[in-house]
């Protein structure tokens, strides 16, 4: 019996669908998949170069060539990339493909490579070519590094894209197999449909083919037939398993890249030309306050309210030069981010990648340093100005007037003593903060040490007609501390209590156990401290009343020394004060056990 026109109509209809699907897959999906993989590789190269830029360029100017070469080779082995650094004129300074040691002198034009030439003229450049050593395709990216409108060097990285080409070729072969087998399957199924009452296996095969065309590649058709229909089902099952395995491998590779990006401490985001979010790692979500998994495709403006960030992205979309800026993010914990925005290659521009570094601690330390320098300059300037003014007065003739000469010489001596005390306190505080001060931690009997220091301050208290009173506990105890450091703590607290108390006042010293700690309490009924100043009393050079403190000869470092010494002994210090009624300072130190030697 011949094949009817109905057979050919059905066959051609389904065969056209199968062939058309395969053709569309070859024309659209395979190139798109390859392009996506290539763009992903470009983005990875660009991000790697941006991250390695600050690591390698400073080393290029301060490190020997052999050390730089070893560093570049180490980074290349760690990242799986080929990395090369060059000077401002393109002269090579390091190359991970070269052996350790000095680089061989090259006579070729450093800008003969397409990516280097593009980087010199446009700021960056990509080039895909065959590696002469391995014979495999490689993707190269070169970046020109500018500082203050001057080129300081070039950084180039390469990544093997052989896997992308192999995957694309495998997809084309699998698609071709699919097209051929699908056409054959359609023919056989149509023939069976028209010549055999068995339509169950045909329906299964038809559904399997439809599922594969929809992207569900893992199909398993059970056809209990040893004839052509069974062979077709077996081949279709084998093809579906191969397609599923290839796409699973691609997903695994993509997952590994995602894991690497999400493991970075720097925040990384990528947006398209319309500033819609394409990619964001976990660090970026934590810095900017959004969920990366739920924010893909959202507009950046709706996710982050940061004018510097949006300005950097907008600037990078219009310029090929990387935009570097800083942004202050508010909230419960204010943070400072250093933002580097780089335009992605392409015409029109496909988007921008942004790398963010949290520099909050760095800026805080810089502010502390500036504040410390300003305070030290001010504190040194005051006594020096008094000394200079007195010396000039003496030189202008006061030295010949005994009464005036003695007064000015006494002033010079007092200011010199104050300057000496300030320098000693600064050196002591610097040693404690840096950890250079070595402490002999031992058991110190509190009552004995307090009585010893009170005897030292009796004369100063008697001069102001003040009383120094002690309130010992029923049972004595010892604390763990360094003897000299404990003396400094007591002297500073007692000295402040006497200085800032009115004549005829009282200073009370109490000590008692509180759990595993010993508490030493110094209370006065002096001028007190305003509550708004209490959080800052332990800061260096802080004085609630600067004029009165200078009149009394205070350096402004005593309480800062008390705080850092107490912390060095694994203790703490707190203050409570009422303006006009007096202050109470309490130092907590660990209690001593029997295993520590007694001072």
TrEMBL record:
PANTHER family: PHOSPHATE REGULON SENSOR PROTEIN PHOR. The keyword Transferase applies. It is found in: Membrane. Residues 196-248 form the HAMP domain. This is histidine kinase. GO terms for biological process: cellular response to phosphate starvation. Its EC number is 2.7.13.3. It comes from the Bacteria. It catalyses: ATP + protein L-histidine = ADP + protein N-phospho-L-histidine. GO terms for cellular component: plasma membrane. Residues 253-301 form the PAS domain. The chain crosses the membrane at residues 12-32, 176-196. It holds the Pfam family PAS_4. Residues 375-593 form the Histidine kinase domain. Signal peptide: none annotated. One of its GO terms (molecular function) is phosphorelay sensor kinase activity. Keywords: Kinase, Membrane, Phosphoprotein, Transferase, Transmembrane, Transmembrane helix, Two-component regulatory system. InterPro entries: BphY/WalK/GraS-like, HAMP_dom, HATPase_C_sf, HATPase_dom, His_kinase_dom, HisK_dim/P_dom, HisK_dim/P_sf, PAS.
